[in-house]
Amino acid sequence: MKKIINDPKQVVEESVAGFGSAHADIVRVELDPVHVVRADAPIAGKVGIVSGGGSGHEPLHAGYVGFGMLDAAVPGAVFTSPTPDPILAATKAVDGGAGVLHIVKNYTGDVLNFETAAELAGMDGITVRAVVTDDDVAVKDSLYTAGRRGVAGTVLVEKIAGAAAERGDSLDEVAAVAERVNANARSMGLALTACIVPHAGEPSFDIGEDEIEIGIGIHGEPGRERVGLEPADRLVDRLLEPVLEDLPFGDGDRVLLFVNGMGGTPQVELYIAYRRAAEVLAERGIEVSRSLVGNYITALEMQGMSITLLKLDDEMIELWDAPVQTAALRWGR
Amino acid sequence: MGLDINWAVDWVRRSAEVVAEHRVELIRLDRDIGDGDHGENLDRGFEAVVPKLDDLAAGSTPGDVLKLVAMTLISTVGGAAGPLYGTAYLKAAASAGTDASLDGSAVARMLEAARDGIVSRGKAESGDKTMIDAWTPAVDAATEAAAAGADASAVLAAAAEAAASGAEATEPLVARKGRASYLGERSVGHRDPGAQSSALLLQAAADAASESTGA
C-alpha cells in the first residue's frame, strides 16, 4: 500500500484538520466529536442542512459545506457511518430555530445512526426531518434488500435543497424539494480498479487487470456484472441504458447530466464519457439543460466513474443555478 | 432471588471479555456476508464501557448500568450495530427502571423491551437473518420460563440457550435486511454475525446471573 498518510488511525482527523485550515473562510472544524460546520452557522430562521457518512468519498460531504449548500457535514471513519453523537453535535450547531434537514445516503448504518441522532435532537427540542437518497439503479429495489444505495445523486440533492434553504424555504418545503430531486435522479457506476481502505491496507475487492465491474457502489461493493476491457463509448452505454430505462427518461425531458469520477480517473477520460452520454441523450430527444463533470463523490483512489441523470423542472433549474460557495462547488457569488 | 447492580456490572465485564474473545470470529462471519467490521466495532464499544463502570455513583441500579452501556455503544460502535445495540440497552434500561433488584418476570420484560427496541430501530422481522432471529426466541423462552415461575437466573439461562439456537438457525436463511441483503441467495450458508454476538451477550448475562445467585 502506497499512500500519503502518517498513521492509518489518524487519516480522518488529520484530513479534516487540513480541510478546516485550508477553508477557514467557509467552514469551522470541530474535532471532538468530528464535524465540519459552516463558518456563519447557526443562521437564525434558516433551515439547517446536515449530511454525513463514511469518509473516503471526498469532496462529499465536507466539500459541500458553505453558502447555498450544507450547513454541516459529519465525516465518519473511512467507509464507516459516523456515530450519533457527532451527528447530534452538528445538528445542534446549525439549528437556527427553523428545524434541521438530514440528508442521508441509504446504507443501513448511516440510516440508523442518523435516526438515532434525530431522536436525541428531538429530545432537545430540535425538529429534524430526514431525506434518504437512493439513486443507484444497479441494486434491485425490492422488499428483500435494504433498498437502493445512495450515490452521486446525493450531490445534486445537497445543492438543490441547500439553495432552497438559503432562499428561506421552510423545513417541509426543503425536505419536499430534496425528495423530489432524489425521486428524479438515477445513477450507475463502474470500476476499473479497487480501492484500499487505509486501516485495512489491502484492496477492498479483487479485480483483474483486464476486468471492469459494472454497477459498482461507492465502497467497492459488488456490481451487476463483470466485463472485459471495452472502449469508453460502450462502457457509457452500459451505464446509461439502465439509468434511462429506470425512471424512465424520454423524448422532451430536460436533464442535468452528471459524469462523476471515482477518484482515480482523470478528467480527460470523464469528458470522453460525457461526449458519448450527451450524444446518446441527443439521439433520444433528451435535452441536457445543465451538466457537471468531475470527481464529486469518490471511492478513495478507485478508477471508475458514474453517470447520473436528473430530470429537471423549472424550480430545480433555478435552485441549481442559485449561488453556492463551498470548497468544492462555487459559482454566482 | 433477584438480580442487582452487581449482576449488571458483572454482565458488562463478561460481555467485554466474551466479545474480545470472539472478535476474530465475528469479523470473519461479517466479512462473509457484510463489511467485516462487526467484531472490531463491538469490541471497541465494550472496551470503552468497562472503565466507565468505576464512575457509577453509589446506589446505582441495574437500569443505570444498562443506560451507561447504551450511551457508550451509541457513541463508539458506529455502523448498524451501534444504534441497534444502543437502542436495545436503552429500552432495557427503561424497562428495568429504578428497581434495585430484578426478578424473573422483570428480566423477561426487560429482554422483550430490548428486542422491541431493535425491531423498531432496524425494522427487521423474524426470518430476515438478523439479530432478531436470536432475540425473538430468547424473549419467547424467557417469557415462558418467567410465567412458569422461574427465577431471574433461570429465565436468563433459558433466553441464552434459545438465542444460541436462534443464531445457529440463521445459517440457511436468505438475508433480507442490512448489507448482507444485497447478496441475496449468496448469503445462505453463513451465520448472521449480529445474531451470533446477541447470543454471546445473552450467554454472558446468564453466566453473570448464575454466578451472582450461586445457582
TrEMBL record, chain A:
Q: Which reaction does it catalyse?
A: dihydroxyacetone + phosphoenolpyruvate = dihydroxyacetone phosphate + pyruvate
* Record's keyword annotation contains Nuclease: no
Cellular component annotations (GO), alphabetically ordered: cytosol
* GO BP term, example: glycerol catabolic process
Q: Which residues form the DhaK domain?
A: 7-331
Organism domain of life: Bacteria
Pathway(s) where this gene product acts: Polyol metabolism; glycerol degradation
Q: Which UniProt keywords apply?
A: Glycerol metabolism, Kinase, Transferase
Q: Main EC class of this protein?
A: transferase
Report if keyword Kinase is assigned. yes
Q: What EC number is given for this enzyme? A: 2.7.1.121
GO MF terms, alphabetically ordered: glycerone kinase activity; phosphoenolpyruvate-glycerone phosphotransferase activity
Q: NCBIfam families per the record?
A: dhaK1
Describe, as the record does, how this protein assembles with itself and its partners: Homodimer. The dihydroxyacetone kinase complex is composed of a homodimer of DhaM, a homodimer of DhaK and the subunit DhaL.
Provide the protein name: phosphoenolpyruvate--glycerone phosphotransferase
Q: Which organism is it from?
A: Agromyces terreus
TrEMBL record, chain B:
One GO molecular function term of this record is: glycerone kinase activity
- Report the domain of life of the source organism: Bacteria
Does Protein biosynthesis show up as a keyword for this record? no
| Chain coiled-coil ranges | none
DhaL domain sequence ranges: 6-207
Sorted alphabetically, the keyword list is:
Kinase, Transferase
Q: What is its EC number?
A: 2.7.1.-
SUPFAM superfamilies, A to Z: DhaL-like
Q: Which GO terms describe its biological process?
A: glycerol catabolic process
Q: What's any one GO cellular component for it?
A: cytosol
Name under which the protein is recorded: Dihydroxyacetone kinase-like protein
